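seq as requested:
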Amino acid sequence: MASHKFLVKEVAIQAGVSTATVDRVLNNRSHVKHQTRLRVLRAIEELERLQGSLNLVGERFLIDVVVEAPDRFAEIVRDAVEAEIASFLPALVRPRFHFRETWTTAELVARLRRIGLNGSKGVLLKAKNLPEICDAIGGLRSRHVPTATLVTDIPDSPRIAYAGMDNISAGETASFLMSRFVTGLGGTILLTISHSDFSGEADRIASFRQSILLARPDLDLMEVSGGYGQSIATKNQVTELLERGTHIIGLYSAGGGNRAILEAFNDLDVPEPVVIGHDLDEENRKLLSEGRISAAIVHDLNKDMRQAFAGFIAFHKSKFKAEAVRFSTVQIVTPANIPDLA
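struct tokens:
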């Protein structure tokens, strides 16, 4: 295995495993699970990206970022986290990333429990709104590990903050735009969601439905969910609708996978609909620049990180005070105003 410059203890802390496990991985010894081996290797990669801050002097805040989302979204979360950690100097915010496109509930609960046992200054969590996850957040809190939910909330949990946009306002905004984009057209608006247990996406869709039916009661609405925003699963769902002859004139994509969705239209030689999506990941940036997405509903993800990290630090300095949820401002990006990458 290639050499690296970090102490075994540093790698173990970053990976959330024992020093003995790190030693076994680094020396290619047996009796190490494949996922554990990958976690150690990813920890070394994370340390390499963070190495500029590792030598700084200050109080360290080890934060765990746990996300269930397609890789395209997880990467913009990583970018936002790494962009904001320097803003808290002299406090040294050091992130550990736990990303998967899909977690089983048992896997995610086990990971949160392990984080609590190993110790953490805070968990930034994007996960489904399920009783088991809610209980796991309570378990973290009992170990003095605060949780902030990201983008999609778990409102009945003892989380200290929600970091993200007002999803109800986002759905209303998408409805306002769609009703004007399809003026004079009749047909079906397709609503896509990665999974109904992500409360943020569910709120977007419910708000969109209520608003557009008031503005355009003549339109039909159809919804597909459960594809987790993954390309193949989402494309197959849309293909099935198109093969049944559904005349889709608009798409409100609350859960992503937009290029795959549009491929379904192209494969069947069906005209692409008006598309309103969410987030400025690399895929949506390209689709906007190609004019294949009419608008993307976005928010300041970096601001979300600052809010969450500030809450974690205040919690541990006994300065935390529960406040009303402060939503990020909903913003609209079109092909005419795509912001430059920082």
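The chain has a mean pLDDT of 88.
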